[in-house]
Fold each of these.
Amino acid sequence: MRTIQIPLQKNPYNIYIGTGLLDRPLQMEGLAAALNGRRTLIVSDETVYALHGEKVGKVLREVGCEVLGVSLFEAGEPSKRISVLEGIWDDMVRAPLDRKSMVVALGGGVVGDMAGFAAATFMRGIDFIQIPTTLLAMVDSSVGGKTGVDHPLGKNLIGAFHQPRAVVIDLKFFETLPEREVLSGFAEVVKAAILGDEELFYILEREGPGLIKDPELLEVVVSRAVSVKAKVVAEDEFEGGKRALLNLGHTLGHAVETVAGYGAYTHGEAVAMGLYFAVALSRAKGLIDELSASRIENLLLKWGYKNAPEELSGAEIIAAMKHDKKSSGGSVKWVLPLGIGDARWGLEVEEALIDAQLEGKDK
């Protein structure tokens, strides 16, 4: 087991990473203390809860929680909306939860975002913990305290920063994950490697998708990816500056998800397209050397990621990007790679250049 601390000034917390952690919850130092005596509500989707809900409920009782109930919704990105959130709030009231109660998010990124936002807004904020069940949630959305729901005009436009009390990353969940979900999550691992870990990038290059079958190597890879994000979050909790680096690949990625319809592509698939595009822009602006650009593109290709959504027009994608929460005054701010382990945030790119890259031709 590996423990990574997010050393925030106000709400520091631990991220526990290992295989079979839920089989030995008392070994996670600090987790039992955070949960003992707390009244909890499990928030999950129907698919995940059917697979893991009974076991997680048993674990919570083992560490001293009183489990008051479960709030479930249909699995998938289309559930990430206000009407579903209202159902969670209703279940929190009926449980009933109070200001000292805790929400347990059991599931992937959609569950974590929904449960976290519900916790952030119920009685002006109660505690929650994350038990992510997808790789994408493990290495990205469960870490850092971003919560929220989608709006028809943009992804995650309605939300709040609300840090969890702990994150439990049990790699045993991989046994029930479809291959598409695993590969989706690795797009965020690639992003982390590009941002701040050249050794992690080399491991992904060397091993390829086969590393998924190696539990020890998987723990190393997940831990390194989480560490990259943890370091950035600790330096900039509320995305006032450097944390914007974590949006690498997301400007185009979120636009693709919005225009294609939530769920048409997984988040990781869309982010991978965004990474290809960020490399193309960086190359066009002369910011990245050709060797680094080629290594990133070849790695994405090796892992099987599609480089563009052929059925979407450039005009649709540009319009969606302007509604993205990362834009400012209608101007999209970009994160572009400068090399392996290095990127720059807050960059403006001429719309003509963006359009030229989307259309695949010079203008």
Amino acid sequence: MPSTEIPSHFATCPRGLEALLAAEVERLGAGAVAVTSGGVSFQADLRTVYRVNLESRIATRVLRRLDTKPYRNEKDIYELARSQRWGQWFKVSQSIRVDTTAVRSPLKSIDFATLRIKDAICDRFRDDTGSRPNVDTRAPDVRILAYLTQDSATLYLDTSGEPLYKRGYRTQSVEAPLKENLAAGIIALTGWRPEEALLDPMCGGGTLVAEAAMIGLNIAPGLGRSFGFERTADFDSGLWASVREAAMQARTLDRKLSIHGSDLHYREVEYAKENLRSAGLSDTVQIKQASATDLRPPTAEGVLVTNPPYGERIGEKDDLAALYPKLGDWMKQHFAGWRCYYFTGDPELPKGIRLKASRRTPLFNGAIECRLFEYRIIAGSNRREKT
């Protein structure tokens, strides 16, 4: 098939992880991969779309591009939506949801533009079939997305359904948990390898250690869930079965991993254990209740990675001011030979921890700008002297 006939797609991801996602979709078979802010565009056949949804650890959604046109007002957007042959993608008996994202759009109301797209879809179905689909904003069969720039409108069909960070294993949630795809991206940025030890001393609900274990055992993150493409008219059940079976066969469940998590609070430890049980990883990850600074490294070298408590999760700023220096001293005294990574939106952490970061990677946790700080602990060095 000529490359110009291969459908165009766009995969979204947490900002800061676009390069990782580009490498991932290319490895999974995508072509013409291009990085933009918040995601990557690429060309993919059905097999590749199924694989990206099933196997991508970084993507949030995989969207099939339907059409792009210039626009000046809501009428132009309505005409663009009405011109689509929606019946080739889904049945009139299926429920829909429409979402619109805009960047520098001149329209006064994005909600009204969304309503006009819904009207156009329903009007087209009424013309073609005499009936119209129902709208379901909570659990729709099909999701349509519109992206508006200053002068162009693009329509997408969502092939993912629920966001891909919803792996299906997290039954218990702590306050402000990391999304699973952001956690997987953080693990990838540390450069951790399955033969290395990994420790999260403030693991909360266990998302970082669970994602690391799935990486180490080569478990496709989507094996425990369903996808939007299963409800589209071009769904190929035989092809999907072969893609899923290949992912099942690729797992390395007998691999021995050294992954450890702990938390000061009993509730978080129990939540982490329950989430790991749900993921089938109880025998892979070791979890215990302990204060971070009471822990000692399980091996001479490894990776420490954590999302330390901050803001309302710990309360007063005085507590933070006391915590961070203790963490710095603890790493310096006990973790020589380790690579240590702290993901935080608190700008005071690098000041309080009193170690010189070897790398600072900007990442976004939703709309919150954060940093992943890397500390390579070498005995007798890296200490920033007090002035």
